Every structure is written in C-alpha cells, then in structure tokens.
Amino acid sequence: MVDGLHAIIITDRDGVPVLKVADEHLPHAAMQPRLLATAAMAVEQANKLGVSNNKNIITVYKNHQLISINRQPLIVNMIANANANTGLILSLEADMQEPLDDICAALELH
Amino acid sequence: MMEKSIEKLMDEIMTNPGVNGVVCTDAQGLVVAAQGVGRKSTGGQMTGVLDLARDLHPDVKDEPIVCIESDAGSLLLKSCDGITIGIHKTNS
Predict the structure, then answer these.
(1) What digits encode the pLDDT tens for the residues A50-108?
(2) Angle CA(A85)–CA(A41)–CA(A50) in degrees, nearest 5?
(3) InterPro entries recorded for this chain (chain B) (predicted)?
C-alpha cells in the first residue's frame, strides 16, 4: 500500500491492458488507450538509446506521475499523485515478481 | 554540484566509528547517493518510514529521527530540507 497510488495497469508490449486495478481517483486520461500505448512505445524507444535495456520510465506531470516498468514482455504502469513516494512505488515491482511470472507464463501458452 | 557536496558529506559520515553504510534520498524516495551497505533499492522505504513517523505527531514541527534496531545493527533515519539520510551502523 502506497499513499497516492491510484492504479496499476499491466500491459503487453503494445500497450494492450492485461490486468488493471484502480481506485476512483484515477484521472480520466489514464483510461484512454493512447496513454498506455504511448507509454509502451516510450519504453520500446528507450531500449534503443544504446545504454542497455530500459528498466523504468518515470514521467511526472502537474498533478500525477506515471511510472512504467519494463518487464519484458510486459510493462507495468503505475499512476500516482505527483507527490507520491516514487521510490516506494518502484520497490513494489519486487513484490510483484510472482504474479508477473504467472502472467508471462500464461501469455506464452497462447 | 549538489551531488558532489552530498558525497563529500557521506565520506565524512563513513569515517565515524561503527558506520558501515549511508543512503541519501530526495523527497520522492529516489536515491541520490549510497555508500557501503546502504542499498539503493531501499530509498522509498526510508522516506516512507519517516512519513509515517511524521504522521504520529502531526503537531510537532521538528523532523523526527527514527532508529531501527536489529541483530545486525541499526539504521538511523533523518530528513532535512527534502533530503532524507539513512545511516547504517553495526552493533559493535
């Protein structure tokens, strides 16, 4: 539990949601497919910068922040208040290893 | 520039007896610098603990100092001007 964290959206590499959990404070724009698709594209482009694979992208806006964690073939997007504890949100990835492995395994079956 | 002065300060802290690690984070819990056993992945937890400590006494304006003790040693946490510093100490 992290104060100010509104949503965790797991997408595939194209930004198609696989799993989503959100509270009622999630900004409307975050529900738009283009946000997730653009975040996925940003991760893909960041992989090509020649400084090894991208681990995560933190994008801070006026009121919110979007944290995209690259966990190929999945991308974990977290949307939180701009002043939420970014470090704590990033550390959530370690707790999510097992479910993420399960989702990856399920995707590989199809 | 800021990182340089922080690293200099951390070098100084590391020379104190019993100190085996220092971690420095910004207000968002992102690690600015770490030395010794101080792990870069713990920055968020450190600021999170201090936020909770602050909530315990909302009327007190002074920044709290948190000491987490364990068999392996202790971790001292303090925040000042948006910068949080964690000092790992051995029990000896």
Answers:
(1) 889 999 999 999 999 999 999 988 999 999 999 999 999 999 988 898 989 998 888 77
(2) 90
(3) LAMTOR5
For A5-109, which CATH class? alpha beta
Token output for B31: 């690690």
Domains (range + CATH), chain B: 2-90 (3.30.450.30)
- Dmax over Cα atoms in chain B, in whole Å? 37
A86/A102 Cα distance (integer angstroms): 25
Alpha-helix runs per DSSP H in B1-92:
2-14, 43-56
Residue A24 and residue A42 in contact, taking contact as beta carbons nearer than 8 Å: no
Query: Under an 8 A CB cutoff, do B51 and A85 touch?
Result: yes
Residue B56 half-sphere exposure toward CB, CA atoms < 13 A:
11
Residue A26 sits at φ, ψ, to 5 deg, of -60, 125
Q: Which of A3, A10, A23 is nearest to A86 (CA)?
A: A3
Cβ of B25 within 8 Å of Cβ of A87? The answer is yes
